Amino acid sequence: MDEKKSRILYIRKFLEEYTDELHPVTVNDIRNHLESIGIETSRHTITREIEQLIESEVDVICNAGKPNQYFVGDRHFEIPELKLLVDAVMASRFIPQRKINTLIKKLSRFTSVYQSRELHRSLYIDKQTRPITDKAYITVDLLYTAESMNRKVICKYFEYGADKKKVYKQNKDDYLFSPFGLMWNSDRYYTVGWSDSHEKIITLRVDRISTVKITDELAVIRPDDFDMAFYAGKIIQMFDGELCDITLQCKNDMMKHIIDRFGEDVKTDISDAGHFTAYIQAPTSPTFFAWVFTFEGAIRIIAPDDVAESYKKMLRTALE
After folding, report:
1. Each residue of 101-131: pLDDT tens digit?
2. Is 239 helix (H, G, I), strand (E, B) or coil?
3. End of a domain among 72, 93, 110?
């Protein structure tokens, strides 16, 4: 790289790292910095090259005065945007602490050294559920790669036994799986796709997938009528089960919970002064029944009869 190109890049790097609205610099400051790294130049040359940076759409702002002062204005991210991104990274239980520190360090490069100090924030996180290793983080990347390559993956899937040891599903046999996509729900990654073993679409929690490898076998194509957003809202949130039209009778103060779970488009009718009726679709699974039970009768299943009876049966079983 010739001397001129090298010099203008160092000027740009210095301005991006060491200036902002509250920390402008003069031409002499820039000259002193360049000399500290072995680059001799003149005030006139620096002024001209700052003008060239401005012409190339680097947002260098000049505070006119004696002397002029310069700083970088518009950046890829504003500091409030970076703070939101840092909080999102810190809050994710999916990302191990070591990786969090690396990501925050990288995000800090998008602002000045002075403003980057504001990115080291005090956000309380429940660290008990944070993973120790990068395995799930790597699994996500492999699943995305397999989806883009239209290839199946082979993997194992586990839960935990009473002794806290991993219990592998399917008698430790491998899953041959065609990923349709990934979803983020309740601070966890899930992958949805076709399982050759089950001969149906299934959901796998990514942090419970192990020894995943991309195969050379072409993946099963996602059906044209498969709605990922619908699947996320109705299946992931309530886990697998037979999807059913269900009618709920709810006390009026339960509306916020109905909307939180089923969205603002959920169909409802006013029943009386104290109640409304909600018409939903949900899997008839223990997870859905547990959600209804949470509200201690403020939300009741009133139709269909077989779903209401299944719910009552589960309650009776729990009391035995």
Report:
1. 889 889 999 999 999 888 876 555 555 556 6
2. coil
3. 72
Dihedrals φ, ψ of 296, to 5°? 50, 45
Residues 174 and 249 reside in one and the same domain: no
Q: Which of 21, 30, 32 is nearest to 62 (CA)?
A: 21
Q: Which residue has the tokens 């998008």?
A: 110
CATH number at residue 268: 3.30.70.240
Verify that 149 and 111 share a domain, yes or no: no
CA–CA dist 16, 27 (Å, integer): 15
**Beta carbons of 191 and 182 less than 8 angstroms apart:** yes
Record the pTM.
0.62
In terms of residue numbers, what domain contains 247? 238-319
Residue 267's H or E segment, with its range, is: strand 267-272
Domain count of the fold of the chain: 4
Rounded Cα distance, 29 and 145, in Å:
47
% of residues, the chain, pLDDT over 90: 54
Q: What is the pLDDT of residue 229?
A: 73
Q: Which residue has the tokens 């200036």?
A: 19
**Is residue 282 located within the same domain as residue 202?**
no
Q: Where residue 17 sits, what CATH number does that domain have?
A: 1.10.10.10
Predicted confidence band of residue 165 (pLDDT cuts 50, 70, 90): confident
DSSP-H helix ranges across the chain: 3-18, 27-36, 43-55, 79-91, 97-108, 113-116, 135-149, 228-231, 255-262, 286-293, 305-319
pLDDT-based confidence at 89, cuts 50/70/90? confident
Measured CA to CA in angstroms, residue 28 lies from 19, 39, 41, 44, 65 at distances of 14, 13, 11, 11, 14
Q: Are residues 140 and 107 in the same domain?
A: no
